[in-house]
């Protein structure tokens, strides 16, 4: 129990310190309440949004877009990174196009996406897919492109087929890089979605933040930002739990 309490205090110490400084600054009038609203005002607005059901509606809309876009991006990026990692000649052919697409910000494509797909869900989900694809793809590609040569040589000595080498050597070695790409990509999903929702949406946390700005309600803006941050932390914690439950357990059993 003591270790658990110590861990909780360690995790919460800095956020609590920042909240205390925020409260002291508001009480001391170090800044105007219009610039940075006091914590109690933000909390009150958050409770009002939650009680009215608006917050749940905005969170649900954003979660649906993030999860859909993330799933599509992972379904495209993982096999693409694996295949190109196994075929360097194909990677050289695709390299220039991939680099061009990687360096174009997804939000720069939003006007064209709205023209092609309208202001419905499709354009927002495509923005998430474009932002999420490359972190997953590049990490998968890196993991597949740099196998342990000694293990490959051992596989050849034992007469393993190419398929066996892939399943028992190359793919297990690439899993940590693929997992890292998925975690990074999930964060990019949230970042890109909020920008898309601020431009063309009728619901979602990005819309909530923009609506608060237009109504001159910084308390709503801060409440939306804090909600977004907490959701991001929860999503990453879920990813870490999945990795610890499946990825690292399998690697430990493999080494044993």
Automatic annotation (TrEMBL):
<feature type="transmembrane region" description="Helical">
    <location>
        <begin position="107"/>
        <end position="138"/>
    </location>
</feature>
<protein>
    <submittedName>
        <fullName>ABC transporter permease</fullName>
    </submittedName>
</protein>
<feature type="transmembrane region" description="Helical">
    <location>
        <begin position="66"/>
        <end position="86"/>
    </location>
</feature>
<feature type="transmembrane region" description="Helical">
    <location>
        <begin position="188"/>
        <end position="208"/>
    </location>
</feature>
<feature type="transmembrane region" description="Helical">
    <location>
        <begin position="220"/>
        <end position="242"/>
    </location>
</feature>
<keyword id="KW-0472">Membrane</keyword>
<keyword id="KW-1003">Cell membrane</keyword>
<dbReference type="InterPro" id="IPR000515">
    <property type="entry name" value="MetI-like"/>
</dbReference>
<comment type="similarity">
    <text>Belongs to the binding-protein-dependent transport system permease family.</text>
</comment>
<keyword id="KW-1133">Transmembrane helix</keyword>
<keyword id="KW-0813">Transport</keyword>
<dbReference type="Pfam" id="PF00528">
    <property type="entry name" value="BPD_transp_1"/>
</dbReference>
<dbReference type="InterPro" id="IPR035906">
    <property type="entry name" value="MetI-like_sf"/>
</dbReference>
<keyword id="KW-0812">Transmembrane</keyword>
<feature type="domain" description="ABC transmembrane type-1">
    <location>
        <begin position="59"/>
        <end position="239"/>
    </location>
</feature>
């Amino acid at each position: 129990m003591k270790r658990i309490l110590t861990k909780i205090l360690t995790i919460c110490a800095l956020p609590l310190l920042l909240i205390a400084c925020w409260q002291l600054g508001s009480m001391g009038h170090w800044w105007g309440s219009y610039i940075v609203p006091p914590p109690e005002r933000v909390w009150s607005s958050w409770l009002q949004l939650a009680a009215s059901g608006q917050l749940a509606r905005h969170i649900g809309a954003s979660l649906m877009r993030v999860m859909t876009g993330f799933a599509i991006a992972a379904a495209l990026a993982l096999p693409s990174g694996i295949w190109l990692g196994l075929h360097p000649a194909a990677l050289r052919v695709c390299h220039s196009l991939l680099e061009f697409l990687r360096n174009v910000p997804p939000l720069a494509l939003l006007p064209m996406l709205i023209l092609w797909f309208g202001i419905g869900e499709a354009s927002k989900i495509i923005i998430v897919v474009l932002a999420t694809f490359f972190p997953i793809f590049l990490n998968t590609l890196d993991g597949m492109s740099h196998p342990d040569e000694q293990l490959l040589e051992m596989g050849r000595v034992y007469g393993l087929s190419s398929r066996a080498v892939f399943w028992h050597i190359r793919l297990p070695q690439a899993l940590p890089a693929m997992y890292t790409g998925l975690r990074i990509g999930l964060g990019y999903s949230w970042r890109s979605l909020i920008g898309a929702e601020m431009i063309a949406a009728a619901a979602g946390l990005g819309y909530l933040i923009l609506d608060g700005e237009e109504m001159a309600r910084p308390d709503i803006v801060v409440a939306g930002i804090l909600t977004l941050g907490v959701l991001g932390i929860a999503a990453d914690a879920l990813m870490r739990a999945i990795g610890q439950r499946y990825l690292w357990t399998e690697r430990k059993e493999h080494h044993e």
